[in-house]
Design goal:
There is one protein chain. By secondary structure, the chain is of the alpha/beta class. It is 36% helix and 19% strand. The chain is built from nine helices and twelve strands. Strands 3-9-8-7-10-11-12 form a seven-stranded mixed beta sheet, sandwiched between helices. Helix 4 runs parallel beside helix 9 and helix 6 packs parallel to helix 7. It is globular, with a radius of gyration of 20 Å. The two termini are 39 Å apart. This is Nitric oxide reductase activation protein NorD. It comes from Paenibacillus alvei (Bacillus alvei). InterPro entries: CobT_VWA_dom (IPR025861), NorD/CobT (IPR051928), VWF_A (IPR002035), vWFA_dom_sf (IPR036465). Pfam families: CobT_C.
Length: 341
């Protein structure tokens, strides 16, 4: 298993225009070929390196405080800030070539809606209001009304993406599909200027690291190079889903955005040592979902493995997305996000 480096090994940044119609993953030369920049912490100033270390420590401290007084209280946790290499940049460029035309097309259709929402007198998709929206009934989410917007109120969305990095993700092309879906969602959110947080997780890497969180992108510290960190997503060990969901949901719950969407990509039911399995794990997950839904977080589970029936039972029909064809996953997730704008 390859273990990701800590944030003090973070590398140089690239400048990206999210609205550019060229390949987004890298800068390009005069002939259109991409420029790649070797990840090298020596290129960062000492101040930049210290900020990376401080950010990683902040994430670790906040995560440990969050799970205190829960069933995860005694679990040994480490939050990593993965680095990226030149090979990661090559891989990102290769995987993104087929995705970006689809992402740009969906974003092209979305951007006019965003402009309309900003200028509109009404806030759409409310549970109650003074104006009924017949076109919203098809979504069956009870957000059928619009209400007058106060002068300071503007529509907004924040997205959290959780990736199950359990060992079973290596089977049947699931890992590649998950990577491409994450890339598509990330680039779509960059184009539409939607804040996004992408965390991966695994459990039981060792007795000293019973829960591992990988902070690939974070809206608190956005970096154009984050797209290359996504290439560190891999199949590792077990999965302690409830703990990962709680950590991401908390970040979303305290964010200032109006709509908070948490998407989980998983291929199996929760299972971690010593006894995080069966009803114990299911109850923890359901309690976490209920707790954070009361705080305004919307959950969506993209199930891509053999335990779809169990996952559907955990999340419920309204939060469940059955991905039978892995090739559909990237575009399907991006289109799902457009429903919440």
């Amino acid at each position: 298993m390859r273990k990701s480096a800590d944030s003090e090994n973070s590398s140089s940044r690239t400048s990206v225009d999210p609205h550019d119609d060229t390949m987004i993953s890298t800068d390009t030369g005069e002939d259109g070929s991409p420029h790649y920049h070797q990840a090298n912490p020596d290129l960062m100033t000492e101040d930049e390196q210290q900020k990376e270390r401080d950010f990683r420590k902040k994430l670790n401290r906040a995560a440990r405080e969050l799970v205190s007084n829960t069933i995860h209280d005694k679990v040994k946790l480490i939050v990593h800030r993965p680095d990226y290499t030149l090979e990661d940049q090559y891989e990102y460029d290769r995987l993104s070539k087929g995705l970006m035309p689809i992402v740009r097309e969906i974003a092209r259709k979305t951007l006019p809606l965003l402009e309309h929402e900003v200028s509109s007198e009404y806030v759409r998709n409310r549970y109650y209001g003074s104006k009924f929206q017949a076109d919203s009934v098809a979504y069956r989410d009870y957000r059928y009304f619009a209400k007058k917007r106060p002068p300071s109120d503007s529509p907004s969305l924040v997205v959290g993406l959780r990736i199950d990095e359990s060992a079973s993700m290596s089977a049947f092309g699931r890992l590649k599909a998950a990577k491409q879906a994450v890339m598509a969602v990330y680039e779509y959110c960059q184009i539409c200027q939607i804040p996004i947080l992408i965390y991966g997780d695994t459990a039981d890497v060792s007795r000293m690291e019973q829960m591992s969180i990988f902070a690939y992108t974070d809206f608190e510290k956005p970096d154009p190079s984050d797209r290359f960190r996504l290439m560190n997503i891999q199949a590792r060990s077990n999965n302690r889903d409830g703990m990962a969901l709680r950590m991401i949901a908390e970040r979303l719950a305290v964010s200032p955005q109006q709509t908070k969407l948490l998407i989980s990509i998983s291929d199996g039911q929760p299972k971690a040592m010593d006894d995080y399995t069966g009803n114990n794990a299911v109850n923890d997950m359901q309690q976490t979902i209920e707790e954070y839904e009361r705080r305004g977080v919307r959950f969506l589970e993209a199930a891509i493995g053999q335990d779809k029936d169990i996952i559907q039972e955990i999340y419920g029909n309204d939060r469940f997305l059955d991905i039978s064809d892995l090739h559909e996953l990237p575009a399907k997730l991006v289109r799902m996000i457009t429903r919440y704008i």
